[in-house]
């Protein structure tokens, strides 16, 4: 491709709208442009990268005997009501009516469509197992679209759905996808790690996320320093012991004027946070709930949501402290809270002598004990782990917490969808059984951003060889006819050998050409100048490590091949 013809609007400066490096570079390198919040157009350079990733996905999906199809983006509300997720997805789903006032949504994911498809087609155990996949645009009206394509409202996903007769089959299908995902990320040149994950709105039991470690990642992952334990903090646990409260005195109301937070209380009462209970007022599907964790811990809202099996959980608003809890913001506590369910973190099992809010402005209680002063519905794991805590698996290592970008997610769904939607097969005895399902997603466009987060420097992108938009860029320098002719010859020869080559034939200064080639991150740059030609060499630079070398013209085809060993 000739740069003079390429639609490649690069930018010199960082765009104000971008915070993270991948977003900045995708805009600067002319890979994409914003259409609206979280919605992008992919320009030729960006789309080439997307197509390369899609190709790698297809290869490994096909190799594991998954079959590609294409499902509708526009989906009827009926199937979502059958699966009981029409409300559960909430405002994340774009819903609308057609001209006949029938309800539709734009697919945020496709479990329903697949289950609907097979419930009419799959008859017998002989039709299974199956794994069906597609690569398609998903629409999710994210509350906070950000970081460019990392969290978009419209994004491309590779999604696959496995259908088995039993859990043994599901385990096999799941493992096949787990292995395929490792190969996909590896071939893309990404370092991704599999971590235990929460199953969220998908339901089901086992689940792993594939994470690319990066400071800009929105997820936190706990890794053990000793064994292979790795889990999203949304679900990670640790060997944190129960707290012993020694005090056994009667509960007593104390005056704490204007003292609302745990740290203010610590200072005012000279009592460590571990001796206090943090009471968090939340509203789960409209119902007021009080969650208790130790004063030194943080409530994990995902764990609480899972325990409550709630669709939507949010912090109570100031006015709701009075309306729903009959309490006051800053002074809420579990005593005398009529008709409010109280759940507590398991570390608080033996609590006595704790300090809690008194549901009255400027007052707290001390020496509080559960079971005596108030009832707790359940003690369960409700806290987020912190770095330095002991590993729950090996009990020897310590947990380290790192930021990561979720590029893939696999779930064992089980029979949740098939049962809700009536997708059965007939077993060997002619008895109807629900199909056992799994679902598997890769965020293709997010993966582009993650690859840049992992591969960049101050000059721009350093594409891993396998997903680079072009493999080689030729920079003819100066106006010598010999340079132009030789550059053209090299360009044609390399193309003929099957390489994807750019030639910067623009009438630009050398500095501009160098800068653009580094910005767009083409793995191999060949600079053709009159002086080096006289010596029978071209100057080459590999973008991966900015290493410069001279290659003899005669040896060019062999050397190029050698430099691209990583591409299979
Ligand atoms: P997140 O927790 O980041 O919101 P999710 O768990 O809701 O993602 P899944 O339903 O597991 O996402 O979707 C499969 C994959 O699709 C994710 O692993 C991620 O790579 C990608 N993905 C999900 N939401 C977005 C988004 N808003 N923008 C870009 N990619 C996304
Ligand atoms: Mg996910």
Automatic annotation (TrEMBL):
Locations listed in the record: Cytoplasm
Cross-referenced PANTHER family: MITOCHONDRIAL RIBOSOME PROTEIN L39/PROLYL-TRNA LIGASE FAMILY MEMBER, PROLINE--TRNA LIGASE
Record-given protein name: Proline--tRNA ligase
Top-level lineage group: Bacteria
Domain Aminoacyl-transfer RNA synthetases class-II family profile: 38-464
Role, per record: Catalyzes the attachment of proline to tRNA(Pro) in a two-step reaction: proline is first activated by ATP to form Pro-AMP and then transferred to the acceptor end of tRNA(Pro). As ProRS can inadvertently accommodate and process non-cognate amino acids such as alanine and cysteine, to avoid such errors it has two additional distinct editing activities against alanine. One activity is designated as 'pretransfer' editing and involves the tRNA(Pro)-independent hydrolysis of activated Ala-AMP.
Record's comment describing the protein's domains: Consists of three domains: the N-terminal catalytic domain, the editing domain and the C-terminal anticodon-binding domain.
Statement: the UniProt record of this protein carries the keyword Protein biosynthesis: yes
Keywords: Aminoacyl-tRNA synthetase, ATP-binding, Cytoplasm, Ligase, Nucleotide-binding, Protein biosynthesis
Transmembrane segments: none
HAMAP family cross-referenced by the UniProt entry: Pro_tRNA_synth_type1 (MF_01569)
One GO cellular component term: cytosol
Protein family membership: Belongs to the class-II aminoacyl-tRNA synthetase family. ProS type 1 subfamily.
Enzyme Commission no: 6.1.1.15
């Amino acid at each position: 491709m000739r740069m003079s013809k390429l639609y490649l609007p690069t930018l010199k400066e960082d765009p104000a709208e971008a915070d993270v490096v991948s977003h900045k570079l995708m805009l600067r390198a002319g890979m994409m442009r914003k259409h609206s919040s979280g919605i992008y157009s992919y320009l030729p350079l960006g789309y080439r990268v997307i197509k390369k990733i899609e190709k790698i996905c297809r290869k490994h999906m096909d190799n594991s005997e998954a079959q590609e199809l294409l499902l509708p983006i526009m989906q009827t509300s009926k199937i979502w009501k059958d699966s009981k997720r029409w409300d559960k997805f909430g405002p994340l789903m774009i819903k609308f009516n057609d001209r006949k006032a029938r309800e539709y949504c734009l697919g945020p994911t496709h479990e329903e469509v697949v289950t609907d498809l097979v419930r009419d087609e799959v008859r017998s155990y002989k039709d299974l197992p199956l794994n069906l996949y597609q690569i398609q645009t998903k629409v999710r009206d994210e509350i906070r679209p950000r970081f460019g394509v990392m969290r978009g409202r419209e994004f491309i996903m590779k999604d696959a759905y496995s259908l088995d007769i039993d859990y043994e089959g599901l385990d096999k299908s799941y493992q096949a996808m787990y292995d395929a995902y490792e190969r996909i990320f590896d071939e893309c040149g990404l370092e991704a790690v599999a971590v235990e994950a929460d199953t969220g709105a998908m339901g089901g039991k086992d689940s792993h996320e594939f994470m690319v470690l990066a400071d800009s990642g929105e997820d936190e992952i706990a890794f053990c320093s000793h064994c292979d334990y790795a889990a999203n903090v949304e679900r990670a646990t640790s060997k944190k012991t129960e707290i012993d409260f020694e005090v056994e005195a009667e509960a007593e109301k104390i005056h704490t004027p204007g003292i609302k937070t745990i740290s203010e209380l610590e200072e005012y009462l000279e009592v460590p946070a571990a001796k206090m209970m943090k009471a968090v007022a939340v509203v789960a599907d409209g119902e007021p709930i009080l969650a208790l964790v130790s004063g030194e811990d943080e409530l994990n809202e995902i764990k609480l949501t899972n325990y409550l099996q709630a669709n939507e959980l949010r912090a109570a608003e100031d006015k709701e402290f009075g309306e729903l809890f009959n309490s006051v913001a800053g002074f809420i506590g579990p005593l005398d809270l009529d008709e409010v369910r109280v759940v507590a973190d398991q570390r608080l099992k033996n609590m006595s002598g704790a300090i809690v809010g008194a549901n009255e402005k400027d007052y707290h209680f001390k020496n509080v004990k559960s079971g005596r002063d108030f009832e707790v519905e359940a003690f369960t794991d409700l806290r987020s782990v912190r770095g330095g805590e002991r590993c729950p698996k090996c009990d020897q290592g310590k947990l380290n917490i790192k930021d990561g970008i979720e590029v893939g997610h696999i779930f064992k769904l089980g029979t949740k969808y098939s049962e809700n939607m009536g997708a059965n097969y007939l077993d060997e005895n002619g008895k109807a059984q629900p199909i056992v399902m799994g679902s598997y997603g890769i965020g293709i466009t997010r993966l582009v951003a993650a690859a840049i987060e992992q591969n960049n420097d101050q000059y721009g992108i350093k594409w891993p060889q396998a997903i680079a938009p072009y493999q080689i860029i030729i920079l003819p320098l100066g106006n010598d006819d010999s340079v132009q002719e030789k550059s053209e010859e090299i360009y044609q020869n390399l193309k003929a050998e099957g390489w994807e080559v750019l030639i910067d034939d623009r009438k630009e200064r050398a500095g501009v050409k160098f800068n653009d080639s580094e910005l767009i991150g083409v793995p191999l740059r060949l600079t053709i100048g009159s002086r080096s030609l006289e010596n029978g060499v071209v100057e080459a630079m590999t973008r991966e490590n900015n290493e410069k070398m001279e290659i003899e013209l005669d040896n060019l085809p062999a050397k190029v091949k050698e430099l691209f060993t990583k591409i299979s």
